[in-house]
Amino acid sequence: MNDLLIQPFQLAWATGALSHGPLIRKTTRLGDLTAVFADHDAIQPFASQPAYDVDMFDTPGGEGELYVGVTHLYPGKVGHEYFMTRGHFHQRREQGEVYFGLQGEGLLLMQNQQGQAWTEPVFDGSVHIIPGYTAHRLINTGSQTLSALAVWPSIAGHDYTSLPHGFALRVVEEAGKVRIMAVKHG
């Protein structure tokens, strides 16, 4: 009977630590995000500083398979703008994704292909259904690491280039408060 009992992957809900499976870790540094922040010059002194890590189970991809990963977005600001992930559409636009807030506080910024953008608060226990055809980005507005578990189809892919002017909203600190601002392009 013990030969039939396979140990599942595990997640520490309080910290977002993954275990009991082969893991992949990708670190994104502030210098990798120069085009993402409005104040490009403010990044330069901190270019080697990690902005976020993504840990994911190294599972097979392909039709019908799912990826599971946790983003750990560190607290901080570039100029007045809070640390954020690069943000992306899926290459296969119809593919959705689910985020689960694990720790910290922040926002999930989403934008559809028509340019309509909105945010949802991310916190410990929040659940976010990201529809297909929707770009998405995490933003850490708190003072501790923001960790979110994501589950998405392995065939979805990532498209980081289809928002040439970025998202239609920016999130900044103004007078000690979180402010969501519309961005005018062109």
Structure overview:
- The chain is mostly beta strands and 186 residues long.
- It contains 1 helix and 15 strands; from the N terminus they run βββαββββββββββββ.
- The strands form 5 sheets. Strands 3-4-5-13-8-11 form a 6-stranded antiparallel sheet, with no helix packed on it.
- The radius of gyration is 17 Å and the shape is globular.
- The N and C termini lie far apart (65 Å).
- The model has no long low-confidence stretch (mean pLDDT 94).
Please describe the topology of this protein.
Blueprint: E1 10-12, E2 17-19, E3 23-29, H1 40-43, E4 50-57, E5 66-73, E6 77-78, E7 81-82, E8 97-103, E9 105-112, E10 117-123, E11 127-130, E12 134-140, E13 146-153, E14 169-174, E15 177-182
Antiparallel strand pairs: 1-2, 3-4, 4-5, 5-13, 6-7, 8-11, 8-13, 9-10, 9-12, 14-15
Assess the beta-strand content as a share of residues: over 45%
Task: Give helix % range.
Answer: under 10%
The number of helical runs is 1
Q: What is the topology, as strand order, of the major beta sheet?
A: 3-4-5-13-8-11
- In whole angstroms, the N-to-C terminal distance is 65 Å
Count all strands and give the number: 15
- Cα-atom Rg, whole angstroms? 17 Å
Average pLDDT for all residues: 94
Low-pLDDT stretches are: none
- List SSEs in N-to-C order: EEEHEEEEEEEEEEEE
Structural class of the helix and strand makeup? mainly beta
Shape: globular
* Biggest sheet descriptor: 6 strands, antiparallel
